[in-house]
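pipeline stage [seq->struct] | target=ATP-binding cassette sub-family F member 2 | organism=Oryctolagus cuniculus | residues=644
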Amino acid sequence: MTSRGIARALGYVVVLEAEPTLGSRDLRTTVPRSPRGGALSAIRGRDWLVSRPHAEELKEQLCCDRGRAARPKVDLLTKELEDFELKKAAARAVTGVLASHPNSTDVHIINLSLTFHGQELLSDTKLELNSGRRYGLIGLNGIGKSMLLSAIGKREVPIPEHIDIYHLTREMPPSDKTPLQCVMEVDTERAMLEREAERLAHEDAECEKLMELYERLEELDADKAEMRASRILHGLGFTPAMQRKKLKDFSGGWRMRVALARALFIRPFMLLLDEPTNHLDLDACVWLEEELKTFKRILVLVSHSQDFLNGVCTNIIHMHNKKLKYYTGNYDQYVKTRLELEENQMKRFHWEQDQIAHMKNYIARFGHGSAKLARQAQSKEKTLQKMMASGLTERVVSDKTLSFYFPPCGKIPPPVIMVQNVSFKYTKDGPCIYNNLEFGIDLDTRVALVGPNGAGKSTLLKLLTGELLPTDGMIRKHSHVKIGRYHQHLQEQLDLDLSPLEYMMKCYPEIKEKEEMRKIIGRYGLTGKQQVSPIRNLSDGQKCRVCLAWLAWQNPHMLFLDEPTNHLDIETIDALADAINEFEGGMMLVSHDFRLIQQVAQEIWVCEKQTITKWPGDILAYKEHLKSKLVDEEPQLTKRTHNV
């Protein structure tokens, strides 16, 4: 029986109160229909059974807590994001019918359709999410993956109310709270139970009531909650000192990690993650992969990392042609299964088409011949009609293949860039990021920079481009070298009111013909309609493609790519890898995508402890090294806390 069923059986009524800090997750306070027993006993999830005299008191206390937690002034950007989300929700239309039992922990929805601004993203398909499964939701950029997660997270899809949902949408806003406080406060049930226990203890209440409270708190590991929150933050890269810094002192990327830590800490029944590895370094990606692969409830994640999908997922959902198609296994198994199914589908398609052509030809030739031939022709016509009525196999519709292109850059004799005894710190009294670096790079360089966040990977690229100047030492560059740097904030330079075509024509006025520019942009996967739409209407992945097109036509000798895969789909990343491998110039890469590194990097350089060292193996060996560090240096990180 569900928590609601138990509550009703005991004579309780459930009162729902929305908890804004938890997205779509509901805070359920349960009060008795009649004062026939004041015992407080928690059922499951976020349900509490409290005596009537104290129900309003708890709710009032919660409201006060919210008021204290609210910042005096709402961050303008957060407000704009909230308004944008509301507008998106208003433009979204979802229909579907719950086909699974209302009390089931599995979710089966049929006749699911999803439209956005009148554009049909899903049509008459089914959504199947089973308890204990971890789903990877994949599909091309702009096809509607994030839109589907939002619809599920906001319960526009008919998810039973006893299934609590946590949808991670954006970073925590700046505040005076610490990361540890932000993670701890999300567990509202534990906090309310502790306050009720303290109140009962002061009132010298009956031992039975307190025992019920303590039993539920023990289920929640309340006495270990801070340790568990700290462990999660540590796994995501927060040192003990960082866990107690104010949130307003962190960048947006680190605040997103805090939001991710809250999602992992609260352990919802359904967890929705959209590109959770964005803003993470390789160390944190490995930890998160190990953490999520033990998730025992329902996990749905969107990720561009094949390696991450392989490590976490038990099932793949392919969003394709307005349908959701389901595959058992991880991403590699999906690729193999899909290839086999499509090969069989095409064989069936060609066989049917051959049969149809043969029968039509026979009917045309002999339909008006002798009586015997005419009867045979009529028989074949009936067979043909039955085939048509029963439904024919469709031709496989392949995803559009992309072919990125970096123009020839010409030759420059080595050394192209020389780094001589370079040291760097951001402030005079600040910590030293690098000390006495000495190396050279040229047009044959194919290097991936790895190391924990804060080790200086992005800083090194800025030093090499001249955006930062060394504190000591010298960086010498060839007088003719052109450097193109892709970084995570490149989208901010885009004029959102212009279309990609207008923007590129503005940046490259030497290209006079629009059709020529259309061909250039088209190579980066933007359709004709997307090329003339305002950039603000494009998805994040499509905006990234505009940035890549802009970067390529800078015609650089050296490519410095800082997290280029954020918001790109898997097919686009593969196209980028092919373009890098065909590029005539040099390349330095910072990425959390193990597969991209494996595809394009010839050397792995580890940025750590104020220096750079060459890793003796490939990136997969480095990943195994990071896994062993989790076990050897932080054994508490391997403890499984998601088991229920």
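stage status: PASS
auto-comment: The chain is about 40% helix and 20% strand. Residues 343-390 form one domain.
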